[in-house]
Each structure stands twice: as C-alpha cells, then as structure tokens.
Amino acid sequence: MSQHDRLLIIDFGSQVTQLIARRLRELKVYCEIHPAQKVTADFLRAFRPRAVILSGGPASVTDPGAPMPPPELFTLGVPVLGICYGQQVMMQMLGGEVRRGEGMAEFGRAFVEPADGPLDLLAGWFEHGPEQVWMSHGDHVARLAPGFSVHGTSRGAPYAIVADPARRFYAVQFHPEVHHTPGGRRLLENFVRIAGFSGDWTMAAFREEAIAAIRAQVGQGRVICGLSGGVDSSVAAVLIHEAIGDRLTCIFVDHGLLREGEAEQVVGMFRDHYNIPLIHAEESARFLSALAGVTDPEQKRKTIGRLFIEVFQEHAAGIEAEFLAQGTLYPDVIESVSFTGGPSVTIKSHHNVGGLPERMGLKLVEPLRTLFKDEVRALGRELGLPEAFIGRHPFPGPGLAIRCPGEVTADRLAILRRADAVFIDQIRRHGLYDAIWQAFVVLLPVRTVGVMGDGRTYDHACALRAVTSVDGMTADWYPFAPEFLAETATRIINEVPGINRVTYDITSKPPGTIEWE
Ligand code: XMP
How many Cβ atoms sit within 10 Å of the Cβ of residue 197? Predict the structure, then answer.
C-alpha cells in the first residue's frame, strides 16, 4: 500500500498502542505499528512517514538502556506526537529533563486546563471547560526542551500538553487513544490534519489495491481457501475470487458441528450466490465416529483439529494449488515489544488450518493482514456480503462439540441445535443481537424431572450463555430482562423436545471462560 501517506507508530510497549492505530484508521489514515527496537535511521528513511507517533510504554527514560528512537527522527521535518512515555522520550532527546515520579504521579482520570495560548493541535478543545483525560505515567517532565511551550496542565501534570508548533512537535502526558479521554479523537484528528493527511485510506481504495496485489502474487497459480462461515475467511474468499476468479477453490469442511442452517447458508452464499468453486466436504459421520466416547474438552479439540486437517488435505489434493489463503488479521501480525530477555521480538502467527501450509508446501495468501477486525467488516460491506454474515457472533472452530459437555452424539447435537436456534431467534426478535458479543446454548449432561401437562418428564437441562466483550479476553454476562428470560425458557421447553429445564449462566470471565469447555 505504498502509494498511501503513511503514519508510523513507534511502539514502546504500551498495552493500548493498538488503539492508536485503530483510531487513526477510523480517521482514514494508513498507519503501521513497529516496535522501537526495529526502528533505525535506515528504517525511517525507507518507511517515509508523513508523521510519527511515539506510544506510551512501561519503561522509564531515566533508566540506562531505556528504549529510544534514532535521533534522525527529529530531523525528518515531519510532525511528531509523543504520548506518555513518548512525551518523556521527546523531552529527554530534545534537551529537556525528565524526573522519576516521586510524589507527582497521576494515574487514571484527570482534568486538563488550557495554558499559554491556543494551539492547532487543540482546536475544539476547552470549549466547555477542562477536558477529561486518562493519565498513566509516573515519571514527569521537570524542564521543557528548548522551543517548547505549555498548552495544558492538570493538578498532577504541569506539562500535560507541550508543543513546539514551529517544528510541529507535540507531546502529551495522557492517552488520547483511549475512550476515557473523550476529546482524544479530536486531538488525533487535529494532528493528522496538521500533518496533511488526505484521508485516502478507505475500503474502496483498499479493495482495488488488494486485488492488484493478489494478482501480482498469484500470477496464473491456483489458490485454495478454507471457508468456515466466519467473517474473516468469507471476506478473504470473496476478495480473492474477485481478483483471480475460478482459480480460487474454497473448501468447506463440514464437521457436522455447525449451528442450525449454517452449512446450507455457506454453500448457498458462496457456490450459488458468488459462483465460487466450492467443495462441500460433508464429513459429519466421520467426525461423529471419531468423537464417540470422547468427553474430555481438550481431547475433543485435538480429535476435531486432527481430522479437520486430514479432510482438508484429502480434498485439496486434487486441486494442484500453490497457494493457501488465510484470513490473518493485523493484530496477529503486529510484532510485540519485549524489553526483557529472550529474543527481543516475537511474531505471533496464526494457524487457521494449523501447520497445513508447511505440510502441503503451499505459499500463503493473506490479503487481510493489514486490517483490523472492524476494517474487515467494512471491507465485507464494500464487497456486498450480507449484514447477517458480517455482524455474526464469533463461533469456535470445534463448534457445538464444546457446547455439549459429555459425549457428542447426533441426538444431543440435534437437541442443542434446535435450542440454540430458538435462543438466537429470541435475541434477534428483541433487537439485542448486536449488543451481545456471543450468545449460545449449552446442552448439559444432566437430566431433570419436570411436569408437562399431566405427565412427568425426565429430560435434558440446558444453560443459556450470553456475554458482552471487546475482544473475548474478558467478558461480562449479559443482564437480560426477567421477562426475556421467562419467554425464552418457555419457548425452548415448548419448541424443543428433549429439554425440560432452562438455566441462565451468570458467570463473568474471569473467573469463568465464555465457552463451558
Ligand atoms: P473462552 O471460552 O476461552 O473463549 O473464554 C474465548 C473466545 O474464543 C472462542 N474459543 C475458541 N475458538 N477454537 C476456536 O476457534 C477453540 O478451540 C475455542 N475455544 C474458545 C470462544 O468461542 C470465544 O469467542
């Protein structure tokens, strides 16, 4: 994507560096995050940033060996914004002084008031009084670097916002990228405007460029793509098909552990609607027999994973492809920062079909590897994928097998699938689907006594699970109204033969996990 104006984010290891990139992408600015260790003077020259942001980080510039950017950064003539640790780096390198935080640390919510005169970076700020910001650094600036003036102060941070407008150097002690700093987006928007970004990073532009890049990479070769029904592989498949047409073949391994109607939807969408060559590997019987007698959750995962690769490989064998498409996203690719021991940089890799590329000697096509999840969704919309596909809740690879504690059988799956469909239908009818991160039914390995009509029943119990979350790492149970729960329980018991009791799981993560297994 070299034709776009680029912003470089130098990462010093803050937990929220990715948010800087996400905010900038929302402003239609193309940016990349690179760990401080990697950013040399040569790297800077090759990257040719239009602006640079220095992230926060856990180190102290007063420590020997604290990570620093190359001094050439400040001779490029481009705007630089330092955030928290990044502010201190700027002050230290440009001739100011930073002291350890004793007594001056300010963490969490703070209020910044204006100081010496207006500043282009702060257009729109302070119109309604002090601005709320999120502070998180213990060290503080004791003396400003020459050329800098103060434009915002808070009780604990006399140099909350400093700038040298002539050189377009700005530094703030708080985090503008987090939502606890409500004016943060405006500040970042001002910064990219000052830097002269044109806002050319749109999904329409990305689509054209990605198609050209896929064509250039693949040439006359063939590509196979594993479809799961999830948004990443779906978007990757449609994009690659647009680039190379029928030289893409999709393989949909149907392990029989999908939700109601899902397999039909995948086939209908890709084969019938998009006319993408699709192999529907309907292997549910094979998966079920491999799962017979397996009750341990990790054993279930291993069994399904092993068989998945086996089936995929069998169906791929006849295609003579050189390339395997993967829906790898940017967060899987960003090199993480490590300042303590070991190799300094670890690259997380993503194996949707674990180990397959090596085993089959395939090269990877990863057209989404510069995108965040929100951008993949936007690209999906751009490509005309229906909203129902794009906004879907995440679904685990091992599917319903891990929502069926105990043995997975065809009968238990059928009951689970029905109950799950009723629960999701309820959530959609009540307009709650998009407010929830994930919702599903778990079929419990417990039978309970009930009474229906005049008769006694002895049937399965199930649990409803619904959580809110940002990334699946932590989650809160969703507070349904009692009326919603009552109506859903009644519907499940009436509409799903085999279930006579419904419970609601009110465990958050931690200490629970989202799935039961
Ligand atoms: P947990 O249960 O660990 O789930 O809180 C966090 C997120 O990960 C999904 N999940 C999986 N996804 N293979 C997957 O592809 C798995 O084995 C797996 N286990 C959990 C889960 O659905 C949730 O979104």
Answer: 23
